[in-house]
Amino acid sequence: MAKDIHKTRSAPKDADLPPYFNIDPDAALADLDQPTSTHGFAEIAEACGRGRTDLASRGMNEDGQKELRLFSTWEITRYVIPVAQAHFRRVLKQNPDLPQGRVETEGGAKWFTLDEVLTLRAFFGAQGSKAKDYIPYRPEGLPAKMVAVANFKGGVGKTSTAAHLAMSAALDGYKVLVVDLDSQGSMTSIFGGTVEDEWQTAFPLLARHYGEHLRTENQRRLDRGDPPQPLDEALTAAMDMTAQDVIQSTHWPNIDLIGAQLNLYWAEFQIPVWRMAARSWKLWDALTDRLEADGVLDQYDVIFIDTPPALGYLTINGLSAADILLVPMGASFLEFDSTGRFFDMLHSTFASIEEGENLAARALGRPEIGFEWDAVRTVITRYDAAQQGELAALMQAYMGPVLSPHKQDYTALIGQAGEQVSGIYEADYRDFNRETYARGRETFDATYAAFKRLLLGVWRRDALQDAADHRAAQ
């Protein structure tokens, strides 16, 4: 008879079990706090507010204001003014009226404010070699380019990408305006903005656009003998406001801000009410028309619009205002899938607007409308080549030129800058070392280079078309 050789496997010890086994209900109850009421949300918000204030203050000076760091001779000649350090120092010595910088340690490097750097750049642009790119390309006589950064999936680096592109453009010598349409106000925090209520946001610009439309419609109603629709107190107040009333300076000398705060979200409820009261109001043109009417497009080179992570009325305004649309996304299936649905929703939304407007336009014999963007690009952010290379290549194959071939790597420098509520370009390389700093900013320099190539191509196309139109008119 065969011997039974079956082995008995011992039962796992408690220490080997997954952590969700053997949880004692009484012990769980002892850990539980009291139920949360509506007031509890206020307490949580207040605690977060204290923490936010504490964290934000770490990047501020003694006066409670954000202050941009200084830039060294090494950094200026490597990243801003492309000359040898010896030549840079020689030019300063030969021109004592130029900013001379300051030395923080005996025999140490000279450090300059960004205002001083911009003055030096202008001097080199006027007096230096014409073969060098001291002053960035900007066609004369053409308006600023508006750039919307959008995706309705959160956590894809939307605000971070917009902020760093704004800082890159500023370091490159452009005059930049940042428009924060996200009521979370993250972009506003990055640039140290102070926004007390919705009247210091883009809201009054939208309200004025509607108020002006209502006044025009009221005149038509009076001409027909119909009673006018009244302008309420808010609309009356908005009629006296311009973009200059809501634009604030930042700690960057050539970056200004239209900020946001929680009350801006009210616009998502107010805009459809206005639209229902005046169906002929073109709400999607509100931001564009007001910025243009107030001369903002002539005062800046590039305007970056940070949109909410949802396709609401504020996002529609930002997208329709934009000449260039950038859509950040991660290299994951869920983000690829979500971004595809975002574009599908963009199509449905703007096609619906066109269809509704053009139906009436055809009936009245008026020109039809059609939305158009100079360029649309998706950008892979927080990229890990070791883990995401295959999926990123697949995404590139499907999306083609719409997906920028440059991928924005995630580095330790990004994380550290985020902890300090600042951008990478605001980090002082002495907090790391030159090599670590140089490696850390490489990915954002490359992101800006890809964007700048897009911007210059669009501007050049416009300039050639403008010249052709001018010749045809002669």
Textual characterization of the structure:
The chain has 474 residues and is an alpha/beta fold. Helices cover 50% and strands 11% of the residues. The strands form two sheets. Strands 6-7-5-8-4-9-10-11 form an eight-stranded mixed beta sheet, with helices on both faces. The protein is globular, with a radius of gyration of 27 Å. It starts with 24 loop residues before the first helix and ends with a helix.
- Spans of at least 5 consecutive residues whose pLDDT stays below 50 are none
Q: Helical segment tally?
A: 18
Average pLDDT, rounded to a whole number, is: 87
The shape, in one word, is globular
Radius of gyration over alpha carbons? Answer: 27 Å
**Biggest beta sheet summary:** 8 strands, mixed
Question: Helix/strand-derived class?
Answer: alpha/beta
Count of β-strands: 11
Helicity range: 40-55%
Strand content: 5-15%
N/C terminus separation = 112 Å
**Within the largest sheet, what's the order of strands?**
6-7-5-8-4-9-10-11
Q: Secondary-structure element sequence?
A: HHEHHEEHEHEHHHHEEHHHEHEHEHEHH
